[in-house]
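# nightly structure sweep
# worker-07 picked up a monomer target from the shared queue
# config: single-sequence mode, recycle default, output format = structure tokens
# input follows
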Amino acid sequence: VQLQAFGGGLVQAGGSLRLSCTASGRTRSTYHMAWFRQAPGREREFVAAILRNAISTYYADSMKGRFTVSRDNGKNAVFLQMNNLKPEDTAVYYCAADQRQGYYPDSYYSTSLTYDYWGQGTQVTVSS
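# output follows
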């Protein structure tokens, strides 16, 4: 499975961006999907996840109310709408896929070790 994330760019504080991630290759089934980000000198952190049912979603506390994750299973795509962006949101954003089909406790989906496939990342830069 190959994941490709795109849609990043340079935006002023308070602005919006919409990231997209498409899956290709051996997409035999629908995966649980997530977004993570990594800023320079910092560890990769969880942003949001959306399960294969396209209903259950999870967010990091600092993103709640500003970011919205969604998906289109027919197109093997997941999206991250980011509003009211802040300079501290500057990072490389990665999409990830979990090949397991089951449903697990909430904390499972915010852990990077859960995910088997990763995209190459897309840079988001928010200027003040």
